[in-house]
From TrEMBL:
Residues in Trichome birefringence-like C-terminal domain copies: 80-324
InterPro entries, per database record: TBL (IPR029962), TBL_C (IPR026057), TBL_N (IPR025846)
Lineage summary: Eukaryota, Viridiplantae, Streptophyta, Embryophyta, Tracheophyta
Organism of this sequence: Brassica napus
Compartments reported by the entry: Membrane
UniProt protein name: Trichome birefringence-like N-terminal domain-containing protein
Membrane topology classification: Single-pass membrane protein
Keywords of the record: Membrane, Signal, Signal-anchor, Transmembrane, Transmembrane helix
Chain ranges passing through the membrane: none
Span of the signal peptide: 1-26
Trichome birefringence-like N-terminal domain location: 26-78
Family classification: Belongs to the PC-esterase family. TBL subfamily.
Length: 327
């Protein structure tokens, strides 16, 4: 405890320095660059009970340890450090839900580890005793329904019955896409038509349209999390995955540009009249070719995971942005 109090004290001083100038209203949090910052990571992943083994890269033997020490620096402002207690207090009495794929659930779990352990005890205390915020997670990788029928599992692009689970929430934080690149259905249904498969971008856009008609709560859409399997896209044509990457790209833009699904998502969100905010984390994540587990995930060398992220790491920045958005 004593040590924590000291490190908390110095963190406070540091954060006062770092917070100048404060987050400007209207600052574009999504354009900027990564910088090395010795005060990161903001928590020790070995003390965070919510981190699943496949994302605990350090524990899994990842030898290079720079990857959690980069801070996202937007061009026009500085992000406030994530403060779990404050996050809960700001949302006191509210209900929040994260309907999204399991993988992203795991990325949000350490939301409550983004503090020194002194804070962690506070958060546990809050969650156990007061529960001022109801936080729910709902596994729904595609947003639209997947239903088990006689012919097999059917993804219904124009149906969103699962949305009933989201009613009554004050804030919904959505995410999708991660699972769209893998086929985990037998049929796709649109109206009365069934097909075994179709252009995934087209399917994704129809599903987003269905979702757009459904959504009426204040919603936040967590943008698309990119993967790194093609070195040509970051100027290293010999690289066929993220394995061995130890540094971010230092510039502000990704040579390969944004993946096409981002365009589809933005187009779909542009058609929605309801208040949906996109937390556009794709570009900042694209710059982090070093941030994935690669062979330090669960499958070891055979796994070579360049689509999920090490924790601590890049998703902490997504959480930081979510927090700053709510400030
Ligand atoms: C269903 O298939 C028919 C025939 O191929 C086509 O004319 C129709 O537009 C399709 N409907 C939908 C909703 O895709
Ligand atoms: C990698 O990206 C380059 C540049 O866009 C493209 O030409 C190539 O087909 C891609 N390779 C793979 C395996 O997708």
């Amino acid at each position: 405890m004593g040590d924590n109090a000291i490190s908390y004290g110095s963190m406070l001083v540091l954060s006062l320095l770092l917070l100048l100038p404060p987050l400007a209203k209207g600052c574009d949090m999504f354009t900027g660059q990564w910088m090395k910052d010795p005060s990161y990571p903001l928590y020790d992943p070995s003390t965070c009970p919510f981190i699943r083994r496949e994302f605990a890269c350090k524990k899994n033997g990842r030898p290079d340890l720079d990857y959690p020490t980069f801070r996202w620096q937007p061009q026009g402002c500085k992000l406030a450090w994530f403060n779990g207690v404050d996050f809960l207090q700001k949302n006191r009495g509210k209900k929040m839900m994260f309907p999204k794929s399991m993988a992203v659930f795991d990325m949000y779990a350490p939301l409550f580890c983004s503090q020194v352990s002194l804070y962690y005890d506070h958060i546990r205390h809050y969650l156990n005793l007061h529960i001022p915020v109801e936080i729910k997670f709902d596994r729904n990788p595609y947003l639209v329904d997947i239903v088990s029928e006689k012919i097999g599992s059917v993804m219904k692009l124009d149906s969103i019955n699962d949305g009933k689970n989201w009613l009554g929430m004050d804030t919904l934080i959505f995410n999708t896409w991660h699972w769209w690149s893998r086929k985990s259905w037998d049929y796709i249904q649109i109206g009365r038509n069934f097909t075994k498969d179709m252009d995934r971008m087209a399917a994704f856009e129809i599903a987003l349209g269905t979702w757009g008609k459904w959504v009426d709560t204040v919603s936040i859409f967590q943008g698309i999390s990119p993967s790194h399997y093609n070195g040509s896209l970051w100027g290293e044509p010999a690289a066929h995955s993220c394995a061995g990457q130890t540094e971010p790209l230092w510039g502000t833009s990704y040579p390969g540009g944004l993946p096409p699904e981002v365009g589809v998502l933005k187009r779909a969100l542009g058609k929605i009249t309801k208040p949906v905010t996109l937390l556009d984390i794709t570009m900042l994540s694209l710059l982090r070719k070093d941030g994935h587990p690669s062979i330090y995930g669960i499958g070891g060398r055979t796994g070579n995971d360049c689509s999920h992220w090490c924790l601590s790491g890049v998703p902490d920045t997504w959480n930081e942005i979510l927090y700053n958005y709510m400030l």
